[in-house]
Amino acid sequence: MTIKRLALAVIVLIGMAGLGNNVAHAASLCVHPAGAGRCFTSIQAAVNAANASDLISIRAGIYVEQITILRKNLTLVGQSGAVIQAPADMEDTLSSLTGFEGRPIILVSDADVTIRGLRIDGANSAESNPFLEGIAFINAGGEIRDNLVENIGFGEPRLPIIDGGPSYQGDAIFVVNFAATPRTITIAENRVVNYNNNGILVDAEANPNNPAIANLTAHVVDNTVIGLGPNNVIDQWGIFLGGFGFADPQFSITGTLRGNRIHDQVTIAPHPLPGVGIVTFNNYNVEIVDNEIENVNIGLSANQASSVQITDNKISGPRQEVTGSIGLLVSGRDIGITENRFNKLEIGILLLVEDPDFGSAVNTALDDNQFEDLAVDVLTGSISLNVATARTTRIWPKLPHH
Predict the structure, then answer these.
(1) Is there a domain that residue 2 lies in?
(2) How many domains does the chain have?
(3) Quick one: which of 22, 66, 254, 307 has the most CB atoms within 10 Å?
(4) Any residues with CB less than 8 A from the CB of 172 and at least 6 apart, and which?
(5) Higher-confidence residue: 18 or 166?
């Protein structure tokens, strides 16, 4: 090495050493039920002590607590056997953020957070914990991956009546962004079972001060969502991805719905509304690809979609004798429907035309779809049962700007 290069190397090393005194390095914190290894005994205590970008390792054990993460980017990783269980008496931690009641087991707001490898158990405690939720991201982004979320509800189908009307509650994973800051969320490889209402709900609400700003990109991939099966009490949804109040569909919500497995969203008479595998609303440039949807009243409802590709999905109808089963219900424009398989349904694809709520399916391309054991392969017309309206009107009825 020449003297010039040696001198340059020394200068660079000195400069890096000087920078090291001013750069905060991410730390690793641990949680153990008994405090072994100088770990925290509660996850919330570790969250409170952590600095931005720290990793919190949660060791095997049952942690009966609510966790709130506000304005702090963190990573929470559960080791095998780490369980977070809903307390018998939970606090309403949503009202101060959203203006409406909610009791999430894990709440994240105004941050980018990763939650991975945890078992989230609601303990079927919605009777004593109204508006129980599993994991809630409010105006937040990050990653929710490889978790088991279970028992988020009453333990059986239940539709409580509050103030004279039905109250849908019991969402396992839900994400909503109504702030101006754009967020990206990845929800992947999770297993959701035994929930009351929605398995995974992702919602973008326009900022009223500027409804022309796109604010949420969502990738919902490789999740398994299993409903409660046939019931005449509540119409469950597996996955919801929607946007509301935007100036144009391209400013709404975008991303991917890929490789998800959704089963057993079935309602039977006399319940008036159907269980649905996947519901999308006001999506822009979303790929809905390679999803398996089985034993449902309606497989996929894609309303007011724009530049959406629906490809290589497998949709099978209810195993029970029910009426009105539909594989795919579509409205919007510039939609590609390709190489999907439909089985054991009354209607394979329903293309809406002049529907009073959702308009028409305009410039829709159908190519190489397969139909087996159907009464009607493809049908056009309006739908008297307003599948999306009946439910989207109650998803976020009390957001501050509504």
Answers:
(1) no
(2) 1
(3) 254
(4) 120, 133, 134, 135, 149, 150, 152, 192, 195, 198, 199, 200, 225
(5) 166
